[in-house]
Amino acid sequence: MTDNPPQDPPDDELQWWSTPATSSSGASVTGADPTILGAGHQFGTSGQQFGAPGYAQPYAQQPHSQQSYPQQSYAPTSYVQPTPGPQPIAQAQPGYTGQQYPQPPRRNNNALWIIGGVVGVVVIIAVVLVMVTVHATNNATNSLLGTKKIDGNYAMSNVTNACSLVDLTVLSQWAPTPKPNPEHTEHAPDGTIGGGSLECNANYQGAGQYSTNGAELDLDVEFQSSFGSPDYNMWKDEDTKTTGTGRDSGTLTGLGEQSYYATYEQDYSSFDVLEYTCATMDSNLSAKIRFRVESDNPANKTDLATTCKTQLKKVLTGLHK
User: Fold this and answer.
1) Confidence class of residue 91 from pLDDT cuts 50, 70 and 90?
2) What are the boundaries of each domain within the chain?
């Protein structure tokens, strides 16, 4: 059995933290630590301290001296909520807590207004120039075709087959057998800008010693639209300004407002080719017919001229309102 360590002598003067204890005889024991359960008591028959059997309390816990502090009292204060006012808006600078620099002055909006005004003026000028150009083009066309260049004296509303405007049997003068299914196209005019076109191509075959020669007719009709010049002008430049051997051209009278003809003769060793073109422009219409004849001997140019002019008149009659 291990002896208990010596205890400090009890202080006769009771402290605030000490609680008198009573012994088995009922006597008061002073100096016992109230925080130690059963301080100063012996338990069991063997005289061991409190704990497991055979376990000796190594030492008795010393009382802790505690200093008392006077408790400060505070007078209750009343809280008055401040009246909210305009708060300054801080410029957020995320991730940066260094020195703040003043913001650069804002760009004057007057410069933007000036630039916008200049751009607007340029756009207006461009639109005006386009309108003037279109007007001048229309005036130039009007001087040639008249003020009713779109809704002129001719229309294609009743035409379903352009080849019906001419007599294809005239080709039998130079070749006996017609080629089946003549090609034709019809393009209706636009409801706003006008225009429209008709085309026909027909062939006769079986002429010559070896039955290899033939005759061909091409018809081209164009109606004037709001833009551009009449197709007659382009045709005339191509047909009359091309020079070379076997070519000839001139003015064709008694047909429309303006008319011309052009010829092109080619002499080969075994056959000859003669092309004869006649074209006219009248009101809102441009029309052209081209004959091409292949024969063992040169075809009669006068016969071709008469036939071409007659068929062109037939076209004008068929399209006139």
Assistant:
1) low
2) 1-61, 111-145, 162-319
